[in-house]
Amino acid sequence: MNPSIREQFPILHQEINGHPLVYLDSAATSQKPRAVIEAVKHYYEYENSNVHRGVHTLGSRATDAYEGAREKVAKFINARRTQEIIFTRGTTTALNLVASSYARANCKEGDEIVITQMEHHSNLIPWQQVAKETGATLKYIPLQPDGHIELSDVEKTITNNTKIVAIAYVSNVMGLIHPVKQIAEIAHRNGAVIVVDGAQSTPHMKVDVQDLDCDFYALSGHKMCGPTGIGALYGKKALLESMEPIEFGGEMIDDVGLYESNWKELPWKFEGGTPIIAGAVGLGAAIDFLEQIGMDEIAHHESVLAAYATERLSEIDGLTIYGPAKRHVGVVTFNLGDVHPHDVATVLDASGVAIRAGHHCCQPLMRWLEVSSTARASFYLYNNEQDVDRLVSALIQTKEYFGDAT
Amino acid sequence: MQLDDLYRRVIMDHYKNPRNRGTFDNDAVTVNLNNPTCGDRISLQILLKDGIVQEAKYTGEGCSISMSSASMMTEAVKGKTMEQALDIANRFSSLMKGEEVDFDDYEDLEALSGVNKFPARIKCATLAWNALRKGIDEENKVQ
């Protein structure tokens, strides 16, 4: 990876607690390159207006910028049509949209919704709620000891009664990629739709929703160098057309009467209210930035870094890494002996190293791992081997600091 | 940022040699509290009789700050009246806001004064105290 990439992230060039910042929490949110910050600034300084309303010039500029960003998202994940991209607040909102609209209309008692115990809360609780309200049954695909899924278990779990299969493409804790394409094939063979949580995959690897043949795919802008507050839901056109909106108001209507109204066509029928225009513009700039570098290049960089991190971390006595021995992506989750992850994160922070500690919005997975919480280092295109070395030496200091607790 | 401000010897002592850790069989008030942001959890048992905290024990999982704070809290309130216990809890809240507070009744608590310099850790230190307040509230409701 070209070292100049790091230069493009202003936030990385500062000291934290007297040490140069090492940011290893990109799975929570990524940092933003100058190009994205400038795009948002430029939008507010030269284009800001409401979209799809004004006849004036600024109105057209804002609409072009907003709709241009939608085209970029569509191309980035290879959607067949731009109208299949609905802008949302993020992955959580996108998944909740599918749950509230599609799932409530299509699930009833006796139906099944299939997920895994590894899902982020945002791809678990919406389905729990749907199951409770419709009488559908929530089923879990079993996990292997290192966290991966066997397709034979998928075959056994998904049945003719399954209506929805919801799964993350990449786990935010275990650093592994699920065989979503194969799972989609099994789901379709049984007449179910598949909903893919793409929060952790979209920023880090090439995604092709047509090749995966997924029915829905959710993503967050802020994890892929874009601003917070913007994300997208991809859905196959026929499915989106069959769905009712869940938010009603301005922007999404075609004709409003006193007792009846009807909706705009896709994608706008799902975008009630003034949308997150500047966020979409920033997301578009983030996509340009990532594509300039190349998603394959980014994926390669992270997998090399993850392998190096796994190797270096394994040298530390008493450190346990969770998940597969060979990481698929740049996420390494671990515990340092009996030192609580909170304490680890605080000691690391004193050395300028930022990691995540806690349950990572995955309480059911923590229970499956039989831990209350873990520490997690996650890497992105701006990290390098020096960052890993700083992490390792800070962990060794932590061990010394807590003495016999390890 | 000085780590030693946070992890004082007294704190590490309570963490590694917790006081009042465990449970007891009695007609006690039990309070279960979680810290949903990090997964820390505490189960506090307090026995209140004649307006006095006769016994206090806890179990749970958490970081050095939350568990040492629980250990100190139970030590501090045992044998105190409910009013005294709440007064200590109030002083502890002031301590977390960075105010100067005396704990003549249980000086170990002063070791937690460094926590207020680590804003992300204040909720760790206050978990056990929130459980105490909840327990006393429940007891008052019963009476």
Automatic annotation (TrEMBL), chain A:
It comes from the Bacteria. Its EC number is 2.8.1.7. The keyword Nucleotide-binding does not apply. Keywords: Pyridoxal phosphate, Transferase. The keyword Manganese does not apply. Residues 22-391 form the Aminotransferase class V domain. One of its GO terms (molecular function) is cysteine desulfurase activity. It catalyses: (sulfur carrier)-H + L-cysteine = (sulfur carrier)-SH + L-alanine. InterPro entries: Aminotrans_V_dom, Aminotrans_V_PyrdxlP_BS, Cys_dSase_SufS, Cysteine_dSase, PyrdxlP-dep_Trfase, PyrdxlP-dep_Trfase_major, PyrdxlP-dep_Trfase_small. Its cofactor is pyridoxal 5'-phosphate. Pfam families: Aminotran_5. GO terms for biological process: cysteine metabolic process. Catalyzes the removal of elemental sulfur and selenium atoms from L-cysteine, L-cystine, L-selenocysteine, and L-selenocystine to produce L-alanine. PANTHER family: CYSTEINE DESULFURASE (PTHR43586), CYSTEINE DESULFURASE 1, CHLOROPLASTIC (PTHR43586:SF8). Belongs to the class-V pyridoxal-phosphate-dependent aminotransferase family. Csd subfamily. This is Cysteine desulfurase. It comes from Paenibacillus amylolyticus.
Automatic annotation (TrEMBL), chain B:
Residues 7-124 form the NIF system FeS cluster assembly NifU N-terminal domain. Coiled coil: none annotated. One of its GO terms (biological process) is iron-sulfur cluster assembly. GO terms for molecular function: iron ion binding; iron-sulfur cluster binding. SUPFAM superfamilies: SufE/NifU. InterPro entries: NIF_FeS_clus_asmbl_NifU_N. PANTHER family: IRON-SULFUR CLUSTER ASSEMBLY ENZYME NIFU HOMOLOG (PTHR10093). Belongs to the NifU family. This is Nitrogen-fixing protein, NifU. The lineage of its organism: Bacteria, Bacillati, Bacillota, Bacilli, Bacillales.
